[in-house]
Design goal:
CATH class: Alpha Beta
CATH topology: TIM Barrel
Number of helices: 9
Shape: globular
Order of helices and strands: HEEHHEEEHEHEHEEEHEHEH
CATH superfamily: Glycoside hydrolase/deacetylase
Bound molecules: zinc ion
Length: 246
Amino acid sequence: MNAFIDKMRRRAGRYLDVRPSPIRPARGTFSLSFDDIPVTAWTEAGPILAEHGIQATYYVCGGLAGSQNLGLPQFDPEDLEAIHDAGHEVGCHTFEHVSTLRIGAAELDASLARNAAWVSDVLDGYEMRTFAYPFGDCALAAKAVIDQRFLCGRGVRDGVNTGSADRNLLQAIGLESRRLPGYDLEALMSETAKQNGWMIAYGHDVMDGPTPYGCTPDDLDRVIRLAKAAGLDILPVAAAWEKMAA
Ligand SMILES: [Zn+2]
């Protein structure tokens, strides 16, 4: 029964309170993001991003710092500083990594405020400008809260954002070992280029023998090479958004 209610609530979040924003970058655009920040999303992925000369978005939960999540060690505050110093965007993923289906609007807002304060403390006043929903769960009441605090919010529903998209629930593709075999990345990227769309990818751990939610270093390298080959601009989420709005 609870699973059924969650399904209905996810559907309400998807179809109601849609705030469409035009997605028409001058060139097709690709954004890479990492959620939760298992430490390998930095130690393994960071050098690959640097080698390609690109920046990504790291969606952080202050409450996961120095902890284990899904059996994997997560980032430390020093990692977050290094991520920020390397020019990557730091985005918000709630403080506790809580599903918006489990909390009300006021509680969500408090979690976002807690995360903002934590990040500001670690990164010397830094303000996060974009959001990713933990578990991809978007409750209807959460959308107005996200709209007020951020430029945009990203879910995990498969797809490329083209033409117009709900800015509080952008679509994405998973750099996840359980999902990657199901994508024709070349076709998705060439379609993104042709339609001047915005493809956002999200991942978690980056290592050989990744979890179902992560990918290998080779997978990451390949995705970046394909995006470049398709002629896509590669930008963090907030920078891509701003370029589109300009
Ligand atoms: Zn997450």
